[in-house]
């Protein structure tokens, strides 16, 4: 995935940067050791997988969308 670093916010403590995703690609669940992740990290991961599916699947054939749905399953 490609990401861009950009200014996220400013406060009395300085300027803080954030990330914007430029390209989307599913994450391979087989490579994740879920027991090492916090609940917050799992929620982010699952939300990202759903975002990939929701944004890409309308561009695919039904067969391709079904394949992508399988690849973007929640942890």
Structure notes:
With 75 residues, the protein is α+β, with helices and mostly antiparallel strands. The chain is 37% helix and 23% strand. It has two helices and two strands; from the N terminus they run E-E-H-H. It has helices at 39-56, 62-71; strands at residues 3-11, 14-21. A hairpin with a 2-residue loop joins strand 1 (3-11) and strand 2 (14-21). The protein is flat, with a radius of gyration of 15 Å. The model has no long low-confidence stretch (mean pLDDT 96).
Count the E strands. 2
Q: What is the rounded distance between the termini?
A: 19 Å
Estimate the strand proportion: 15-25%
Name the poorly predicted regions.
none
Radius of gyration: 15 Å
Shape: flat
What order do the strands of the largest sheet run in, or round the barrel if closed? 1-2
Helix-strand sequence:
EEHH
Major β-sheet annotation: 2 strands, antiparallel
Please state the structural category.
alpha+beta
- On the 0-100 scale, what is the average pLDDT? 96
Helix coverage percent of residues? Answer: 25-40%
Number of helices: 2
């Amino acid at each position: 995935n490609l990401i861009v670093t950009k200014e996220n916010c400013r406060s009395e403590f300085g300027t803080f940067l954030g990330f914007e995703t430029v390209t989307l690609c599913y994450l391979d669940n087989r490579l994740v050791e879920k027991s090492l992740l916090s609940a917050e990290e799992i929620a982010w991961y699952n939300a990202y997988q759903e975002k990939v599916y929701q944004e890409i699947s309308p561009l695919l054939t039904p067969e391709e969308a079904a394949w992508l749905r399988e690849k973007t399953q929640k942890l």
